[in-house]
Design goal:
With about 350 residues, this protein is of the alpha/beta class. The chain contains ten helices and twelve strands. The protein has a seven-stranded mixed β-sheet with strand order 2-8-7-6-5-3-4, sandwiched between helices. It has a five-stranded mixed β-sheet with strand order 1-11-12-10-9. The N and C termini lie far apart (about 50 Å). The relative contact order is 0.16. The structure holds pyridoxal-5'-phosphate (PLP).
């Protein structure tokens, strides 16, 4: 740390992204990317756009807004785009939370929430999930705090039904409820439809998971016009060109080829259920995931040991060190072939472990 670093950031613990090691090639099941490439239209749209790179991108994102509103059936003033949904989350925390309106979120959820809260000096409360890693909806009823909920939750994959989201939104009418739907296309119920009815609901989504655009960095927020206008005030005070030309074209093309992505999401759901059953047969405890990953533990091998042994054998999964979940790993669902390799290596590691104990 330099002696110039502002006091207000001295204790900031920044987010630690999943590792992207370059020492060898790995089967990457650690950052919830799609195993499927972008659609053809996306690739050609990106190539076409390159010739205009000397020009700034459109700060109103008109092409993207139009394509989005067609698929999501909303009015143009009700969506804002971000450089990844992480940026929208940061904007929303900045725009709506402060000392007077603190935040609440689950103790086990997306690791960026506390980072963004600390970055903007927003006080927050962590509400524990129950012993099955489920959100207790009653803990969020009428709490008079802004709330952010990942639905489906990460890293557990467990989803809340829409009626529970609605209860939470309705019982906190003077607070903003942010629903982070990064994984909704893998089996969750979207709250986008509820944003017409509730002016305190902001739904955040991303093109990084189901739409194969993690490297393009594109996310969105949907809410009532006033909320979106506030987020645009923050966006235009930060970086009005936050969506670069190539990503804007890629996003619009992806929306026009939406079926390709929803087909891929369905393939991933099928593979997920297959892997879940296989892991359960090996004695793993696996949460009920509605996302493109599984959250699993074995009673025969420590979470960290399994993660390290898989890494040694060329398969990356995500291990968390937080006490409550340190025996678990989060396993992104790749192609069927990748998952068969993962299952085979896991089986072998477990067999070796049993052998050691004899
Ligand atoms: C991946 C993820 C995001 C953010 O993704 P971006 O790539 O920034 O769009 C947001 N929330 C959750 C819960 C995620 O897992």
């Amino acid at each position: 740390m330099s002696r110039f670093f502002s006091d207000k950031f001295k204790n900031l613990k920044s987010y630690v992204p999943g590792e992207q090691p370059k020492d060898r090639s790995y089967i990457k099941l650690n950052t919830n990317e799609s195993p499927y490439p972008p659609s053809k239209g996306v690739m050609s749209a990106v190539a076409d756009e390159a010739k205009d790179l000397m020009l700034y991108s459109d700060p109103d994102c008109k092409k993207l807004v139009d394509a989005f509103c067609k698929v999501y059936k909303i009015d143009a003033g009700r969506v804002v785009f971000g450089n990844g949904s992480d940026e929208i989350l940061n904007f929303a925390f900045m725009a709506f939370s402060d000392d007077k309106r603190p935040l609440a979120f689950a103790d086990i959820t997306y690791g960026f929430y506390p980072v963004f809260a600390n970055l903007s000096s927003i006080p927050y409360e962590e509400i524990p999930l129950n012993e099955n890693f489920e959100i207790c909806v009653d803990d969020y009823i009428g709490i008079n705090k802004n709330i952010v909920i990942a639905n489906p939750n990460a890293p557990t994959g467990i989803a809340l039904p829409l009626c529970d989201i609605e209860r939470i939104v309705r019982s906190n009418p003077d607070n903003i409820i942010i629903v982070d739907e990064a994984y909704v296309d893998f089996g969750g119920e979207s709250a986008v439809g509820l944003t017409e009815k509730y002016s305190n609901l902001l739904v955040v989504g991303t093109f990084s998971k189901s739409r194969s655009l993690a490297g393009g960095r594109l996310g969105f927020g949907v809410g009532c016009q006033e909320l979106i206008s506030d987020l645009n005030t923050i966006r235009f005070s930060t970086n009005p060109y936050n969506i670069n030309r190539m990503t804007m074209s890629a996003g619009a093309a992806a929306l026009s080829e939406n079926l390709y992505y929803m087909d891929n999401a369905n393939k991933i759901i099928k593979t997920r259920e297959y892997v879940k059953n296989s892991l359960q047969e090996m004695g793993f405890e696996v949460t009920d995931s509605s996302a493109n990953f599984l959250f699993a533990r074995s009673y025969e091998i420590a979470g960290e040991e399994l993660y390290l042994k898989l890494k040694e054998s060329g398969v990356l999964i995500r291990h968390f060190t937080k006490d409550r979940i340190k025996e678990y790993n989060r396993i992104t669902i790749g192609t069927r072939e990748e998952m068969d390799t993962f299952l085979l290596k896991t089986k072998k590691i477990l067999e070796e472990k049993r052998h050691e104990k004899l």
